[in-house]
């Protein structure tokens, strides 16, 4: 059985790690998080250009690296992958998804989705669609267009949100749960079919997440 | 000196970082005439099969690799590289592979999410005098296709169904996992595999992370 992936998220602004006491070179922080047991690193960058820092991080790491950035041009995707990102994460509505999946392979392209519980159903806000879109329909469409995985934030988390992960698992769609740091809620998402959890680096270490989630009977890489 | 085949938009950054940490001298070669005069040749890769085939044919590597293997040169295929070394793939039914490793690459499934992107435990199926035992380790995979295991397969993993992780025919080796992205365990396995192929780290290059 595959391990549930434990993925710290590192925010990067202008090529430097941003956020509180968490500052410095992205490569340094990524290596530290790898040593603390991370199964991969997810960088959230404020720009999709000037990616020398990705090259440095990729050359230093021995775990996979994903980059979420405001990609708007094809050349930015090519540059990110050439610099060593194993996967690029596009923001919804992911206009370049189909072409990117065909060119680079489904493995290398994921999409970020934020779903909100509205009444009895889950909705996703998209440009040009004031009423939003049914979240399950949107996930199905993204899968058909070639998304290799969904970085999914459910609001609210917990028992209600877990139903969304269960639905995604039911359509054999790989999903990484973007967690606020609420470990019981993340565990519920993983138990319902999410393939991993992504959380802001700087709180619990990956090892602490693994200890807590492993104690709930989830498959975790040592 | 290890030769890393450089083609298309394939990034070699992580693999080069792994080589540096393990202390192996290496060079990039876009064409066969840029290869080191001796030492293993690594064909890494990810993404669709057909463009990779076309790029390798255009650069001359497609013709060169079987000749190098016939001459006894070590060849290591990683991920897509393993698929290219095989006889063919369901991903490109009308094409043929290099045929250095027997078997047809099949699409993963049923029973597992495709693509398979994650860490799986690996089990040794057959011993080999040149390569290390794999006992209880996790490796990282990113693929939608894989070789089906045979009695010759050295190690396997399961994603819906069992698939081949490591194949060896003579001095040609194919590995489905991204050893260079598989943490300390994968890095050690990569180093031992290259040692099994006769390559030794250069002490002055070894950064000591292994």
Describe the protein's architecture and organization.
By secondary structure, chain A is α/β, with parallel strands linked by helices. Chain A has a single domain (5-214), classed as TIM Barrel, CATH 3.20.20. Chain A is 35% helix and 28% strand. In chain A, helix 1 (26-35) packs parallel to helix 2 (52-60) and helix 6 runs parallel beside helix 7 (183-191). Chain A starts with a strand and ends in an 8-residue tail after the last helix. The model of chain A has no long low-confidence stretch (mean pLDDT 94). Chain B is an alpha/beta fold. Chain B has one domain (2-196): Class I glutamine amidotransferase (GATase) domain (Rossmann fold). Chain B contains 5 helices and 12 strands. Chain B has a 9-stranded mixed β-sheet, sandwiched between helices. A 3-stranded mixed β-sheet of chain B has the order 5-6-9.
Brief description of this entry?
The complex is a heterodimer of chains A (222) and B (210). Chain A is of the alpha/beta class and 222 residues long. In chain A, 35% of the residues lie in helices and 28% in strands.
Which structural class do you get from the secondary structure elements of chain A?
Answer: alpha/beta
Strand-pairing-aware structural class of chain B: alpha/beta
Task: Tell me which protein chains meet in the greatest interface and how many residues each side has.
Answer: A-B, 39 and 38 residues
Form type of chain A: globular
In CATH, the architecture of chain A is: Alpha-Beta Barrel
Order of strands across the main sheet of chain A:
1-3-4-5-6-9-10-11
Query: Could you give a short account of the major beta sheet of chain A?
Result: 8 strands, parallel, barrel
CATH class of chain A: Alpha Beta
Helix content of chain B: 10-25%
CATH level-two architecture of chain B: 3-Layer(aba) Sandwich
> What proportion of the residues of chain B form beta strands (DSSP E)?
25-35%
Under CATH at level 1, the class of chain B stands as: Alpha Beta
Query: Could you name the CATH homologous superfamily of chain B?
Result: Class I glutamine amidotransferase (GATase) domain
Helical stretch count of chain A? 8
- Which value, in Å, is the CA radius of gyration of chain B? 16 Å
Q: How far from one another are the termini of chain B?
A: 19 Å
């Amino acid at each position: 059985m595959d391990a549930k992936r434990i993925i710290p998220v590192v925010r990067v602004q202008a090529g430097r790690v941003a956020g509180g006491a968490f500052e410095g070179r992205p490569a340094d922080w990524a290596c530290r998080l790898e040593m603390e047991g991370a199964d991969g690193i997810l960088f959230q960058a404020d720009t999709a250009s000037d990616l020398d820092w990705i090259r440095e991080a990729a050359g230093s790491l021995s775990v996979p690296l994903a980059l979420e950035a405001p990609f708007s041009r094809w050349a930015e995707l090519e540059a990110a992958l050439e610099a060593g990102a194993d996967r690029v994460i596009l923001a919804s509505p992911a206009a370049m998804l189909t072409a990117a999946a065909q060119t680079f392979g489904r493995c290398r392209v994921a999409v970020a989705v934020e779903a909100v519980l509205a009444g009895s159903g889950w909705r996703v806000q998209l440009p040009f669609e004031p009423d939003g879109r049914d979240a399950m329909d949107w996930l199905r469409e993204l899968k058909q267009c070639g998304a290799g995985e969904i970085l999914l934030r459910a609001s609210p988390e917990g028992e209600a949100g877990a139903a969304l992960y269960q639905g995604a698992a039911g359509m054999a769609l790989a999903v990484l749960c973007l967690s606020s740091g609420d470990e019981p809620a993340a565990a519920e998402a993983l138990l319902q079919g999410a393939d991993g959890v992504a959380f802001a680096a700087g709180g619990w270490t990956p090892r602490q997440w693994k200890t807590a989630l492993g104690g709930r009977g989830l498959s975790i890489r040592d | 000196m290890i030769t890393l085949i450089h083609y298309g938009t394939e990034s070699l950054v992580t693999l080069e970082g792994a080589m540096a940490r393990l202390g192996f001298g290496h060079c990039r070669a876009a064409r066969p005439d840029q290869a080191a005069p001796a030492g293993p040749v690594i064909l890494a890769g990810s993404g669709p099969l057909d463009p990779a085939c076309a790029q390798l044919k255009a650069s001359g590597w497609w013709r060169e690799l079987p000749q190098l293997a016939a001459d006894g040169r070590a060849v290591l295929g990683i991920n897509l590289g393993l698929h290219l070394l095989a006889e063919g793939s369901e991903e490109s039914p009308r094409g043929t592979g290099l045929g250095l490793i027997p078997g047809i690459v099949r699409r993963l499934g049923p029973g597992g999410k495709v693509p398979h992107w994650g860490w799986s435990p690996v089990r040794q199926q057959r011993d080999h005098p040149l390569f290390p035992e794999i006992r209880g380790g996790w490796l990282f995979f990113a693929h939608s296709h894989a070789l089906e295991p045979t009695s010759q397969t050295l190690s396997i993993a399961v994603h819906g169904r069992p698939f081949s992780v490591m194949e060896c025919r003579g001095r040609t080796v194919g590995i489905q996992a991204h050893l260079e992205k598989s943490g300390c365990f994968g890095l050690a396995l990569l180093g031992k595999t290259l040692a099994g192929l006769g390559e030794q780290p250069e002490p002055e290059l070894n950064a000591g992370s292994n």
